[in-house]
Amino acid sequence: MDKEIVLDIETQNTFQDVGGYDTSKLKISVIGIYFYETDEYVAYEESEFPKLWSRLERSGRLIGYNSRSFDIPIMNHYYPGDLCRFPQLDILEKIQQALGFRLKLDDVAAATIGTHKSGHGLQAVEWWKQGEIEKIKKYCLDDVKITKAVYEYGLKHHALAYEDRLSGRRAIPVEFHPETPEETHSVPGGINLTMPF
């Protein structure tokens, strides 16, 4: 866990803007990261991504919420290697495996840790259009903090929670511990190098 990172991205545009679900047409405004190794939260703007890549290559698992089908593929359009090959934990993927359906981070966080998100992604797109980059950074890092808290709860208790309309608060069984060495680091020595040389 000491080299794991928690991540979230905000985009400059939406799927509605680009005419359908095509991650290759979305552009990133901010990537928010929590580094367990240094206990720090950092928000990266587009011009700062090269500094992030070198840190990711020395990281453990990349942890996010809906990250495998949203955040990572979009980040991959900026990265010269293949982030999809890095060890990952997608919390939403684990929830869907357990329940058979998807839940919003806000709903899981509210039922699990008693915290709501501070906004939604469409607000971040509007802030981008208005040049409010500091608001985007704060919102993105708020999401990272919530994702981190949900991850740590699930890691400790092997369960998360959600509110069922009929039966109230229900448990979601999850297993967040890495099952194989490859889930901790993709290569021996703990450096994720996927760029073609």
Automatic annotation (TrEMBL):
Ranges of residues in domain YprB ribonuclease H-like: 7-153
Domain of life: Bacteria
Gene3D superfamilies documented for this protein: Ribonuclease H-like superfamily/Ribonuclease H
Single Gene Ontology MF annotation: nucleic acid binding
Signal sequence residues: none
InterPro entries referenced in this protein's UniProt entry, alphabetically: RNaseH-like_sf, RNaseH_sf, YprB_RNase_H-like_dom
Entries under Pfam families matching the protein: RNase_H_2
Protein known as: YprB ribonuclease H-like domain-containing protein
